[in-house]
Design a protein that fits this description.
Oligomer: single chain
CATH topology of the largest domain: 2-enoyl-CoA Hydratase, Chain A, domain 1
CATH superfamily of the largest domain: 2-enoyl-CoA Hydratase, Chain A, domain 1
CATH architecture of the largest domain: Alpha-Beta Complex
Helix content: 40-55%
Low-confidence stretches: 291-297, 310-315
Distance between the termini: 109 Å
Radius of gyration: 25 Å
Largest sheet: 7 strands, mixed
Number of domains: 2
Strand order of the largest sheet: 3-4-5-6-7-8-9
Order of helices and strands: HEEHHEHEEHEHHEHEHHEHH
Number of helices: 12
Strand content: 5-15%
Shape: globular
Amino acid sequence: MNWLTNKVLPKIRQLTTTKDTPDNLWVKCSSCGQMLYHADLMADMNVCSHCDHHMRIGPKDRFKMLFDDDTYDVIELPEVQVDPLKFRDSRKYTDRLRDARNKTSDKDAMIVAHGKLGGNKAVIGVQNFNFMGGSLGMAVGEAIVAASKLAILQKAPLILFTSAGGARMQEGILSLMQMPRTTVAVQRLKEARLPFIVVLTDPTTGGVTASYAMLGDIQIAEPGALICFAGPRVIEETIREKLPEGFQRSEFLLEKGMLDMVIHRKEMKNTLASIIDLIANQKQSMLPAEDVVDESPEVIEEAVTEEIEGSELPK
């Protein structure tokens, strides 16, 4: 009887029992509560088909939506010191970092890639909220500095998609120092006369809003994104007054002049491509005919030869 119970019966049950539905087939919209089929949600770019709520997406999905033919190169970012303050609250900072890296398969909260967007070169950085709330730490600061240098090297626009809860408290003042560092990186872009475009997604708050997120030449946001320094709950508790409907959301800030446009995710690529194309053509048309640079090898060699022959040796 034991042989039948322990060996045969489990195999019969295994053959006849219907497998449970996988957990990841359906996703619940955090805004309207509707259950969305995962494949349909991905086809809709993680936008709810019922209420048009823009759900959070990671860097890989964002790059796939933006770069031409899904072709791009992710750059290797500089290494930073891990846990410089030996920080510990309820858990060690190193443990939190390890869990975040296992969850996202990324080293930190920002990934930078370059490729073609609408036929033009572009450098794009995407902040991942799933990595410790997208918090601004030393690694994110280094990523933005590296992205700025790459954009200058390639003479390409830099586009940043922001999503963060603010500065990373586990790195203390070292995380706050990334605010002026990223501001300097943006200033270098402006000195090189290269476009810096910021796309604010839900949520963009704290020290990120207080630094590079509000320094774009063009400020774009996704619909319904929370964009603020201090959240509405904190403000309500401080001033003890009820805030207006939609306070600190994209549409509210567009109305108040803090944003240039609010763009649906499905239209984001075409909008960015049009902006980049317009800027590129405008810069070219502004150059006098004699200042248009021909970068062919023959012209460069001729120019170098003339420079050498025309120069005088020091006496």
